[in-house]
Structure formats: structure tokens, C-alpha cells
Specification:
Layout lengths: L2 E7 L3 H12 L1 H8 L2 E8 L14 E3 L2 H5 L6 E4 L7 H10 L3 E4 L2 H17 L4 E2 L10 H8 L5 E7 L2 H13 L3 H10 L8 H4 L2 H15 L9 E2 L7 H9 L3 E11 L2 E11 L12 E8 L3 E8 L3 H16 L14 H9 L2 E6 L11 E8 L4 E6 L1 H10 L4 E6 L10 E5 L2
Parallel strand pairs: 1-2, 1-4, 2-3, 4-5, 5-6, 8-10, 10-16
Antiparallel strand pairs: 7-9, 7-11, 9-10, 11-12, 13-15, 13-16, 14-15, 14-17
Helix pairs in contact: 1-12, 4-5, 5-10, 7-8
Bound molecules: NADP nicotinamide-adenine-dinucleotide phosphate.
NADP nicotinamide-adenine-dinucleotide phosphate binds next to helix 1.
Length: 415
């Protein structure tokens, strides 16, 4: 039986997961591929660390040693940051190796360039592990929804933020206490900025946008907001209304624009993302023929991420390449109208409302002593009010929300 030789770039959480899986699932790999899979080399940064690696495998800190290997079919990259990962993958593609990456930051910035280079050199590029860990969202969109026109993706793409929000609600904790608990459990880095400020979810969303719509939106025009300013009081007030805070990533096409946002929203029990708790991730795919598909599962971790990379390995060796067409003309009007449609928001405004008569909006007071109002307005109106009145917080409510009897609707005016 012939052998597929692979190199691992990085031997941290993800690299070790791939290493273990190649060994634990050798029988399945051989059965599917008709070939053995062998790890030939591993690139690390620090040669001094103790590692449990079989003898005979080249372990090096020098990338040139990997580049010079005479036989190398696939490179699996799981290092951190844009560089040197991007440069390494370019080199490996040029030498004719298939590449598979888990590195979302690098791929959000350089994925387009790598895809073009891979096509030019006749190799494949796998990136399932860059989005939502073990959930096969990339394969679902590229391999299983070939004729459907995908119009919108919406999901929870960052397990750390979701864990923190879940802890705050369930254990009545402050943001800082929940963050500390996430760090102690290994769900958050010592520097949690990428996760709690929404960058990690944003990188994943950009990868999904490019995959689904053929391009990314202008990064500066997209709404990216993290969860660090959400207070325990806000979480508990939302809980009393039967709502849960979630960091929601959304991308959809509107006219010639791609509209993307990562921001905290409130989710009601009727919405599929309501039940996504702790470090879990989920993605809802809206497509014109099938309707809505919900995928949910582990968004990170050693084995879930290795699972995504090993499945990419199968596709690299036994490709079923289908190009998405990105034809969305017929959907455009419908999506555009959706954006103009009024949505339901919870406004938390502890001080007196400043009202002008330029625009009418139905405001239902839930409890004005607590400064809670339900607003029915389009996004533009809410944004404009929010920009003028920094003290008010707005959170869109996803899913059905019915006013309770004591929540008396009244008409107010603001712009
Ligand atoms: N952890 C997850 O659950 C998860 C899930 C999905 C995607 N990812 C992505 O996967 C990648 C790896 O994550 P991880 O959690 O496995 O990270 P990690 O545990 O910190 O491991 C990183 C590995 O990369 C090596 N490395 C770092 N810089 C290097 C360089 N310049 N040259 C060579 N090797 C270098 C490190 O070497 P040393 O061992 O010598 O320090 C280490 O083995 C990241 O891009 C991450 O965003 C992670």
C-alpha cells in the first residue's frame, strides 16, 4: 500500500490533535484512501519542549528542512498569527503540496490569495477548521449546497464569548468573574482580546463571506462589537424578559453590498441560537431551496478541530471539487427589503428619553423605572439614535418576542 506523507506545522493543541487522530484512525484512513497516512515531519518554535513524538519523525524549528523534503503530499498548518504561516503556506503550495489550515486570522487576511495560488499550482486548500471548529459548515456550503443560493449566514462563532455570557446568566457573575473562570478552564487565552472584542468571530465571518458570496465586505464598514461592556445587570434584566445575550455573527448580501456584523444580541426561546450554550458554536444557513439549516457542535478543542482537518485531508486526496457560482441576482430584492424591515430591539436607557418629532417609532415601555423599552424600528433609525445618545444601549431581539400583559405599548417619537 502506498503512503501519503504529511508535515505538521505547529504541535500545540491542534497539531497534537491531528497527530493523535492520524494514529488512532489509521485503519479508517487506509480504508477510505486506499493508502497509509504517515506524519513525516513536524515544525515547532521551541526545540527545548518535551514532546511525545515517535522516533523517525523529523522535528525541526527550521522551515527550510520541511520545504526540502523530497516527498511531501500534504501540509497541515496549526500555528498562530498571520506570519510566518502565510509565507510558509505560499512556499508549500508552490512546491506542489496540498495545504490544510486551522489559522483563521491568517486565512481571513490572505485566504483569497492562497486560493488563487493553490488553483494555479493544481493543489487543494482545506480550511474547514478555521470556522466553528468541528462543525462541517465549510463542507456543507461547498459540497452539499451546490444548487441552493445561500442568502444569509448567522451564527455563534466564538465559544469563549458564549461561555462567558452563559456563566454570567447562570451563575449571576460579573463579566470579569466569568472571564476569569473561562481562563481557568482553558477556554480563554491570557490575552482574551481577540475573543471578547469580537475579532475571532469576525475573522471567521469574513472567511464564510468569501466562501459564500465570493468576496468579503469592507472591513471598516462592518459592525464589530464584542461583549466586554455587557453588565451583569443587563444580563439579568434580559433573563427576566426570557431573553439570552449571544454574540451573533451575521453576513448577507444586499444589492451589491455584503452586510456583515458581529455584535451582542438578545435571543428569544423560539430562535435556534437560544439553546446554544457554553463553548458550543452554531451556524444557521439560509438558502433559497432548502430554507434554513442549523448546524451546531463543538467550536474548538483538540479533537473537534482535528476532526475538521482530517476530513479536509480526505477531500485533498479524493477531491470532489464543485465551484459555487455566487449567482444571487434573484435574491437581491428580497434581502434588501428585509434590511428595511423593522426589527424588535431592547433599549436600555437609564436616563430620560430625549425625543424629537422627526421620526415615529413604537416604543413599548416594559419598566421605565429600570429604563427598559421594547423598540420596533429599522436598523438605520436605531443606529442614528444610538449615535446621538451614547447612554442608550440597543440589543436586537432575534426570534419571536411577545409583550407580556404588564408591558404596556405606548407611542413615542424619536430619531
Ligand atoms: N485551539 C483550538 O481549539 C483551535 C480551534 C480552531 C482553530 N485554531 C487555530 O489553530 C492554530 C493553532 O492553535 P493552537 O491552539 O494549537 O495553538 P498553540 O497550542 O499555541 O500551538 C501553536 C503551535 O505552533 C507552534 N508555533 C508557533 N509559532 C511558530 C513559528 N513561528 N514557527 C513554528 N512553529 C510555531 C508552537 O510551537 P511550540 O510548541 O514550540 O511553542 C506550537 O506548537 C491557531 O491559528 C488557532 O487560531 C485553534
Amino acid at each position: 500500500m502506498s503512503t501519503i506523507k504529511i508535515a505538521l506545522l505547529g504541535f500545540g493543541t491542534v497539531g497534537q490533535g491531528v497527530y493523535q487522530t492520524v494514529h488512532s484512525h489509521q485503519e479508517e484512513l487506509s480504508a477510505v484512501l486506499g493508502k497509509k497516512v504517515e506524519i513525516a515531519a513536524i515544525l515547532v518554535k521551541n526545540h527545548q519542549k518535551d514532546r511525545d513524538i515517535n522516533e523517525g519523525i523529523l522535528v525541526t524549528t527550521d522551515f527550510r528542512e520541511i520545504l526540502q523534503l523530497s516527498e511531501l503530499d500534504i501540509v497541515i498548518e496549526a500555528i498562530v498569527g498571520k506570519e510566518p504561516a502565510f509565507s510558509y503556506l505560499k512556499e508549500m503550495i508552490k512546491r506542489g503540496s496540498h495545504v490544510i489550515t486551522a489559522n483563521k486570522e491568517m486565512f481571513a487576511h490572505h485566504g483569497g490569495e492562497l486560493k488563487i495560488l493553490a488553483e494555479k499550482h493544481g493543489v487543494s486548500i482545506g480550511f474547514e477548521a478555521t470556522v466553528a471548529g468541528g462543525i462541517p459548515v465549510i463542507q456543507t456550503i461547498t459540497q452539499l449546497l451546490n444548487i441552493n443560493r445561500v442568502t444569509k449566514l448567522e451564527g455563534i462563532l466564538n465559544g469563549t464569548s458564549n461561555f462567558i455570557l452563559t456563566e454570567m446568566r447562570e451563575k449571576n457573575e460579573t463579566f470579569q468573574a466569568a472571564l476569569k473562570s473561562a481562563q481557568q478552564k482553558g477556554f480563554a487565552e491570557a490575552d482574551p482580546t481577540n475573543d471578547i472584542q469580537g475579532f475571532d468571530a469576525f475573522y471567521k465571518l469574513m472567511i464564510l463571506s468569501e466562501l459564500t458570496f465570493g468576496r468579503q465586505p469592507d472591513w471598516d464598514s462592518a459592525w464589530r462589537e464584542g461583549i466586554s461592556s455587557i453588565t451583569r445587570e443587563q444580563v439579568l434584566e434580559a433573563k427576566e424578559l426570557g431573553l439570552r445575550f449571544k454574540l451573533i455573527a451575521t453576513v448577507e448580501k444586499s444589492g451589491e453590498s455584503i452586510i456583515a456584523s458581529v455584535r451582542p444580541a438578545l435571543v428569544s426561546p423560539s430562535h435556534p441560537l437560544y439553546a446554544v450554550e457554553g463553548v458550543e458554536n452554531a451556524v444557521s444557513i439560509y438558502a433559497d431551496i432548502v430554507g434554513k439549516i442549523n448546524l451546531q457542535g463543538p467550536g474548538a478543542g483538540m479533537l473537534p478541530t482535528a476532526s475538521a482537518m482530517i476530513e479536509d485531508l480526505i477531500h485533498a486526496v479524493k477531491p470532489r471539487i464543485i465551484e459555487r457560482s455566487f449567482r444571487l441576482e434573484n435574491d437581491v430584492k428580497e434581502v434588501f427589503q428585509q434590511k428595511k424591515t423593522k426589527q424588535t430591539w431592547l433599549m436600555i436607557q437609564k436616563e430620560a428619553l430625549e425625543i424629537s418629532r422627526d421620526n415615529t417609532v413604537l416604543v413599548s415601555k416594559i419598566d421605565s423605572s429600570k429604563g427598559l423599552y421594547i423598540i420596533n424600528a429599522d436598523e438605520r433609525t436605531v443606529k442614528s439614535f444610538s449615535e446621538r445618545n451614547g447612554r442608550a444601549n440597543f440589543f436586537q431581539i432575534l426570534g419571536e418576542y411577545h409583550l407580556k400583559e404588564q408591558e404596556t405599548p405606548s407611542l413615542a417619537f424619536f430619531n
